[in-house]
Every structure is written in structure tokens, then in C-alpha cells.
Model the fold of this input.
Amino acid sequence: MSMTITEKILAKHAGRDRVAPGENIWIDVDILMTHDVCGPPTIDIFKREFGADAVVWDRDKVVIMPDHYIFTTNHHANRNVRVIREFAHEQDLPHFYDVGTPRYKGVCHVALAEEGFNRPGSVLIGTDSHTCTSGAFGLFSTGVGNTDAALIMGTGKIWVKVPETMKFIFEGTLPPYLMAKDLILAVIGDIGCDGATYRAMEFDGEAVYDLSMQERMTLTNMAIEAGGKNGIIAPDETTLAYVRARTDAAFETVFSDPDARYHSVYEYDVSTMEPVVAKPHRPDNKAKVSEVAGTRLDRAYVGSCTGGKLEDFEAAARILKGQEVVIDTYIVPATTEIGQALHTTEIDGVSLHDIFSNAGCKLGQASCAACLGGPPDTFGRTHDTEVVISTTNRNFPGRMGSKQASVYLASPLTVAASALSGVITDPREVLV
Amino acid sequence: MKEIIRGLAYVVGEAIDTDQIIPAEHLVYSLKKPDERKMYGRFAMSGVPAAGQGLPFGNRPFTEPDAYKSEYTIVIGGGNFGCGSSREHAPFALREAGAEAVVAESFARIFYRNAIDGGFVVPFESRVKLNERIRTGDDLELDTSLGKLTNHTTGEEFLLNPLGDVADILKAGNVFEYARQAGLMPAS
Done:
């Protein structure tokens, strides 16, 4: 019987020829990722259940990337980084990316790709809802809580209910004023924040395969904002070129059968789509930028696993080059690799770093920063009734710190165009 | 899992995400150390904007400002309860405050899974929008084996969706006990 890519990967990791949606199965995990917020409680549960002297099931499959609360004086947050550091040393874990060392990376979902952990056909589980990002590489990835992660840490296994798959096909040529962020915000707006609950979201179509890996990651990253269990894009030459440049590890590509069964199929012609935002206070509160143009803003923010990749900054810099922002504009690279690339990537002979600096932006260090609020001294965090336009992923009340703040989610192009005017602005007005 | 859970209702609106259940700034506390874990009870549901706290009234915090425990036992939500981040701190915080069950029209899957696998709160799906039928402070009784919610304040009864397969994990206590019974982990 035919299967989708998600069903095939799950079947293989359950040691079975086939699985069907709705079945509860136990699968083997290839990579378990955790970070400074969920790592310490995961370790506590692991030791409670498996013993104080327990060792992880496979030290080469555990990845720990501190990224959430790094540049803060909060002593509990600092203590949590020490907890994962001590655990990594105790367990002799090779894939620990410690704060304050050259190994420090920043936002885990982007660093997992950079470090070659996103391998087609595999199963990657993380203690973070945006773990679905990794599915851009043709693998099954999803976020779990501390308890599930602790069970994996001890056994290498997790139970999953095989999801039905929704397919989203994007055809046509992407206009220069649109980015993957516009496409996924459109999908979430169309199906709602729970439109894909318990389901896989598979992205397909020529417009998807025309995208770079960074842009594909934006699509799969926000699958969770529609409630999806995983987002996934079958691998192609673009995928393989990225992966082979980052790892020597073996992997096996998997593809949906042509006659696989889908819960539903949605088709979009990207050539006719428009820049969109998610209005406060839900990611599915969609509006065309043209419908909210002129809305007064206090702040612009470019960063996070969703919108803090190098191409996100290149897009913003194209608009900000030679200009000055009129509202507080925060630039936070997702990873240290991207932070370094801001100095070496140029537009017309000027580095992205200098473009942002000359435009009057505030530049931060690689981490999750204000995407999820965090301790009061977090870079870019809201504290009052700020109205923010942001490349991040969520805008529920209080997400960026203050319950009174209002957050509009948008593409880096729309955020940059708006930073120049202080009101929500269609990027078509400033792109030449 | 207790067969009967009885206590006061705390009613909230639609799409209560995990940042509202426990704001991210509080995730720094240890879930193990007693002097820190009690903070999760203090700040449970503190991210819900004031107008939405304790419907239909509003401005009724789940946990009083200087308290660590809530007077409410059963949380009544709308659709997509627990959406957003994967933080297990969310169902943990509700439990730490003293809540034992959440009844909502639908749940986001990670919250639902965390509630069950950690054995924190029993998540039941309602067949009607109970957050429009029940008021904060109502005296509720949840029969977990029958899947029936009785509102002793109004005399109304509501049948809930069956727990299905996950009842086995809730009955075992958490996913570890379940895994031991299934032979996936050595017996403790």
C-alpha cells in the first residue's frame, strides 16, 4: 500500500513495512536535541527514572544547544546553563555547544542544520515546538516535553500516533517581494492555528523546490503554528548539496508514493499571492499588508529560528541599505555562524553588518532573545504597550515579554520596509 | 488517575497558549527543588490578559498574587488549549497550582501529550463549548471513568469524549510506568 514520506519514515523507524494514520507505534529516535530551558528538567526526570548513575542510550545521538536565556544576568537562567554543561561533561557528550566557547552556536533549529544533524529519512526529536523546522530536510521531526525527552534519553524510543498528512502545493514563480514567510502565514491564516492539529504538513510544488534550504526551513518551522505534528519537504538536489557539505553521516532519502493518500490537498499559485501579516494576537489572524498599511509601530525585530537566518538579513538589508530606520529596530542573528556572515556578506560592497549599523539598527548576539520574551534584561524584549512588527513566529499575548504589547508577524522584507517608515509598509513600495 | 475529581471551575477563553499558561520568563525555575517549583504554582495562568482571567467575570487570577496554590481544581478551556511552545512546564504549572484536570473543546497536541505522559493533569475533550456554559467558581465533579462532568452549581451534566488509548498511560501514572508495563523499560 502506498504511503506518504512521513508514514514511510515512521514505519522504517518502527521496524515495520507499513503503518497507517491513527496507529500508535513506538519508534527509534536518531537525534534527541535539548536546550537550556528544557534540558535541566529533562535531566532531572532522566535521573529520577533511570537512576543517578544512568547513562544516555547513545551519546552520539544527544545534541545539547543552549540558546534561550544566554545573555542575561538572571541567576536561575545562568544556573540552568551550568546544569546542562555538567551533564554534558558527566556523560561525555560530543555534541554540546557551550556558552562562552567558540563552539557556542545559538538557536538550535538553525544550528542543527548548520552542524549536519538534519539528515534526510531520519527521526529527530527536540524539546522545543519549533523542532518541526528540521523537516525541511525530508526527515520526521517534532517537539516534545521533558518527560518524553527523558524517556528517549534512557531508551532511544518514543511513542507516536501516525499522523494523517495534509499536502500544500505551491506552484508558479515567487515574486521578489514575497518570501517563504508570506506563504506559511497565508497557509496558517487559511487553515487556522489548529487547522493541522495531529497532522503532518507536507509542502510540495515547483515554488517550494525553487526555494533555498533557509527559506524551506521557514515553511516547516511554522507548521506548529497551525498545530501540525511535523512539517516536511521531500529532499532534492538542493537538500543533498546542503547536507553533504555539512556531514559525512550516512542517510537514506525517502519520498511519498505518487498515489499516497492525503487528508486534504491545498494548492497555491505564488505568482498571485501578496505580502501578508499575522495581526495581534494570533498567528492565524491574517491580513494582507495592504489592508493594515499605515498602522503605527514602535519597534521592528528581525531574528529567531523563523526569521533570523542569513537570507532573512540579506532581504532586510536590501531595503535598509543607505537608509535610516525611524523606530527601534533589533537585529538578532539566529546563530554565531550567521552573526559572522553579517560581516562577510556584502551588498554593493557594504557588509550587512555595516548596512544595519549605518541604518541605526541595534545589533544583538546569537540567541532566541526577545522572540519569547524571557528574563527582563533580554535584548529587544517588550516591557509595555509597544506595537512591534517582527519576523518571529508567535504573537500570542505576552509572547515577546509584555502582555500589553501587540505583535505583527511578517516577512523580513515587510519588517524592513516598515522600519523605514514607522508604520506597516508594503515592501513593494520600497523595493526597486 | 483519580476516578472522581471534584472542585471549583476556572474558565478561560479560546486558544490559551503555553505562554499564557506559564510565561517564558518564569521557565528558569527548577521543577525539582521545592523552593523553586512552587513558583510555577504562583505564576500558573498569569499570562492570561486580565479581562480573560476567570470568565465570564475577568480579573480573577488563577492563583492569588501572594499564593502558591490555586483554589481552582478543574480548568475549563475552549478550542486549541495549550497551543504554542512545547514547554512541559505548562501542564506542570497547572498541577503545581493544584489543578487536576483540564476540560477543553480541543487541545494542541504537545500540551495534550505532555499532560498525559507526565501524568500532570487529566485532559478531557468536551463535545460543546463548555467555557460558555460554565462559570468560574462553579462546583464541578469529573467522573474520569465515565467521562462525565457534573456542574453541581447548576445541576447540568455534560458527556465528554472518551480518553481512548491514552487512558492506559493515565492509569499507569505516567509514560514511564506505562513503558515498564509494556516491557520497554526495566521494572523499577
In short: Chain A has 15 helices and 19 strands. Chain A touches chain B through 49 residues (CB under 8 Å).
